[in-house]
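FIELD: query
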Amino acid sequence: MNEDLTIINENLKTERVLNFYKKNKKKIFAIILVIIIFIFSIIFYKYLVDKKITNLSKNYIYASIQAEEGKKNEATNNLKKIIYSNEPTYSSLALFFLIEKELIVDLNEILNLYDHVINNNKFDKEMKNLLIYKKALALFERSNEMSMVEILKPIINSDSVLKSQAQLLLGDFFVHKKNYLKAKDLYLRILNESNQDNYKILAKDKLESISNEIN
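FIELD: result
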């Protein structure tokens, strides 16, 4: 008797499944199709991203070789193309290479490239801070006080690992502009706030070096 009931229950379940399938066949096929398209879209997108990064890697190496061979114009053009590709790793690498090798010396162009890389790529917090710091460094000789403070403010007002380094740079900038009291304030902040001993030592040395200017 129990076996018969089991068979009947199984048949009822099968019948219910078949009825559900018949009533919702189009919906089921549509869901399956969407899932398949979604999976293939992810695979295709990953393929395109990997291909783009591979090509950028090759182009970066090629541009580096061109620079070493003295083909500055060709190298510069290729590195700019990499920068405007808006791929975070290679855009920043290309920008650093351009500046390090002095392939671009016009300050406005350098700053525009920094702004493009910072504003058109998704970086983690510290990488973005590094780009901001390097932008400030590029401006050091020709910036005014308001611009330099504004550029470094996001780092100085954060808990970034570059905070003490940014404070030191701004302090050095004030010394460069002979604003020794503001420089003193920055160096003292490093001594009081920093947990990085190397920057505390540097700040202490710099305070001693400007002590005669303050007194």
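FIELD: remark
DSSP finds ten helices and no strands in the chain.
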